[in-house]
Amino acid sequence: MELKKSESANIEKLRGPITLVGLLFIGSVVLASFSYTTEIRVEKKLAGNGDDADIEFMEQTQDTPEETPPPPAVDAPPPITEEIIEEENTEVEPTPVVETPPPVVVAPVEEVVVEEEIIDFPDVEAGFPGGTVAMQKWIAENVQYPQTAIEMNEQGRVYLSFVVEPNGKITNISVERGVSPDLDREAKRLLRKMPKWNPGEAKGRKARTRCRLPINFTLN
């Protein structure tokens, strides 16, 4: 046996969903109407503002003429009004300085003394004034025996060579054969201290002559 559903029970089940669908449809219609009106208002405002701005821009461009910028200012130098005064040439030419050359110092002319020839074998021999005895006496009175030679017991004969000048002076003394440095030195001192000799002669005139003399040193 089949059960039959009543139509009222089926309608009750569909009432809730139908009501929900209707509410959704009504809400969407109301929301759509609000959003459409606000878009129209915004577009009008934007359109109005754009026209005003265009009008104002046109008015400003028509009323205010373009101004050209002034050229830059250049500071020009003031004109020179001073008069150039030409001065006369008052410079005095410098007097030339003449430098005097330094005096020339003339060196004294040295006299060249040409020594005469020393004659070894003259016509007349040079000699001590008073002869050989006077010379030996003079040597004995003037000799100074060196103390070192006495202590060393040095004694002997010193041979000397010297030159007697035309004026009798004794020069060029040298020891040809000596004994000791002290005795040789004493012999040379005695010759330097001797008085002038009588000069030798050659060809009838006084000449430089060479002489040799032995001096004997003995200890008593």
| Widest sheet: strand ordering | 2-1-5
CATH class label of the domain at 131-217: Alpha Beta
Q: Count the DSSP helices.
A: 4
Annotation, overall tally of beta strands = 5
CATH architectural label of the domain at 131-217: 2-Layer Sandwich
What is the CATH topology of the domain at 131-217? TolA/TonB C-terminal domain
**Cα-atom radius of gyration:** 79 Å
| Structural class assignment | alpha+beta
Strand content: 5-15%
Q: Main beta sheet, described? A: 3 strands, antiparallel
> Separation of termini?
208 Å
Low-confidence stretches: 1-5, 42-64
What percentage of residues falls in helices of 4 or more residues?
Answer: 25-40%
User: What is the chain-wise order of helices and strands?
Assistant: HHHEEHEEE
Average pLDDT, all residues: 76
The general outline is: rod-shaped
According to CATH, the homologous superfamily of the domain at 131-217 is TonB
What does it look like?
The protein starts with 6 loop residues before the first helix and ends with a strand. It has helices at residues 7-63, 131-142, 147-151, 181-193, and strands at 156-164, 170-177, 200-202, 205-207, 209-217. The protein is rod-shaped. Among the domains are: 8-60; 131-217, TolA/TonB C-terminal domain. It has 4 helices and 5 strands. The protein has a 3-stranded antiparallel beta sheet with strand order 2-1-5, with helices on one face. A two-stranded antiparallel sheet has the order 3-4. The model is unreliable at 1-5 and 42-64 (pLDDT under 50). By secondary structure, it is α+β, with helices and mostly antiparallel strands.
